């Protein structure tokens, strides 16, 4: 199907665009009262993720209500460990909790390499429903967590400031860590290939906990597995977003991917130099900038756009939009990107 708005994909491929495309991580979520209304009608987050019709509805809301240039399927990176046999609970105000964690090699042996149709069919159905409902208005982004970030949750059992249990394994049981990472990678590759078959136009890999690793460990326990995933997805552009991994930008430049996401701490000019001329950059306004008044949001947005320049840029925040952000402030940012980037052409 021909897309009516393909700015996002053209920018990802490095083609010229009339303006900079814009979307936000976590745009389908808690900032929108319309999302909260759907969520309130269900038992909780997991039911929403696992019910394709509702997941599709909240995926499309930001396209209608905010005017973004891409939709991202409403799901969670933790559907992968769940499909492998490690179930999680989403606890209000605490985040994800895994009642059982991976402690031994036997635990790893008991995990499945999940079959995407059998174990993650609800995500694939949500993608198909969303694609049909979008009717070519904007592209649809599929996604998964990077293997190290998934391992971190599977070992730790919850979010953490340090992920010391997960990082301990890298030092004390490196072979075990690699065995688990490869199993996660195999599941993730099959899952993302199935997302593309179902209709995803671009895939984003979220390495949310990249920044907690020292560079040598990042190279060994994260980068090489992200590389496998990128190499396995030749048919669509791939975005790699590794929060805090400024030390890996030069390596990311060598990946078989189209887009590198920057968090708000990364210097734009330096990042551009490190990844080289053949990658599109995505980001990277500080999410907290959206708490300020409209004039400040517009000023910060213009400054960001000028730093990235008119080519090979997808506007976004440097992380997900925070849940207590006023939707009008998000619209101000999106409108400012459209207005200022068009003027820069």
TrEMBL record:
Alphabetical list of SUPFAM superfamilies matching this protein: UROD/MetE-like
Compartmental location: Cytoplasm
Enzyme's top EC category: lyase
Record carries keyword Acetylation: no
Domain named Uroporphyrinogen decarboxylase (URO-D): residues: 21-30, 141-157
Record-marked site positions (Transition state stabilizer): 76
Keyword terms of this UniProt record: Cytoplasm, Decarboxylase, Lyase, Porphyrin biosynthesis
Gene3D superfamilies referenced in this protein's UniProt entry, alphabetically: 3.20.20.210
Coiled coil: none
GO molecular-function term, one example from the UniProt record: uroporphyrinogen decarboxylase activity
First-listed, main subcellular location of the protein, grouped into a coarse class: cytoplasm
Protein name: Uroporphyrinogen decarboxylase
Taxonomic placement: Bacteria, Pseudomonadati, Bacteroidota, Cytophagia, Cytophagales
Gene label: hemE
């Amino acid at each position: 199907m021909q897309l009516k708005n393909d700015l996002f994909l053209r920018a990802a491929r490095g083609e010229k665009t009339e303006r900079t495309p814009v979307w936000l991580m976590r745009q389908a979520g808690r900032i929108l009262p319309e999302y909260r209304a759907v969520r309130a009608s269900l038992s909780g987050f997991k039911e929403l993720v696992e019910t394709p019709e509702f997941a599709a509805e909240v995926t499309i809301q930001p396209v209608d209500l905010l005017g973004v240039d891409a939709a991202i399927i409403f799901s969670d990176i933790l559907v992968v460990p769940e499909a492998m046999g490690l179930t999680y609970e989403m606890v209000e105000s605490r985040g994800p909790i895994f009642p059982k964690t991976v402690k031994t090699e036997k635990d790893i042996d008991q995990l499945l390499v999940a079959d995407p149709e059998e174990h993650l069919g609800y995500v694939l159905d949500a993608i198909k429903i969303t694609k049909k409902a979008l009717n070519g208005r904007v592209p649809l982004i599929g996604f998964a967590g990077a293997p190290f970030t998934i391992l971190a949750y599977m070992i730790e059992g919850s979010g953490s400031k340090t992920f010391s249990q997960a990082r301990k394994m890298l030092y004390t049981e490196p072979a075990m860590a690699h065995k688990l990472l490869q199993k996660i990678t195999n599941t993730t590759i099959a899952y993302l290939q199935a997302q593309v078959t179902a209709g995803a136009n671009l895939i984003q890999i979220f390495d949310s906990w990249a920044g907690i690793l020292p560079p040598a460990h990042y190279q060994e326990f994260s980068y090489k597995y992200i590389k496998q995933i990128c190499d396995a997805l030749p048919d669509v552009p791939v975005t790699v977003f590794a929060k805090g991994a400024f030390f890996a930008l030069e390596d990311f430049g060598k990946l078989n991917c189209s887009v590198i996401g920057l968090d708000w701490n990364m210097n734009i000019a330096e990042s551009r130099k490190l990844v080289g001329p053949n990658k599109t950059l995505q980001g990277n306004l500080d999410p907290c900038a959206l708490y300020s008044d409209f004039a400040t949001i517009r000023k910060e947005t213009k400054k960001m756009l000028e730093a990235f320049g008119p080519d090979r840029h997808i506007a976004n925040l440097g992380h997900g939009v925070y849940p207590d952000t006023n939707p009008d402030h998000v619209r101000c940012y999106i409108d400012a990107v459209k207005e200022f980037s068009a003027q820069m052409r």
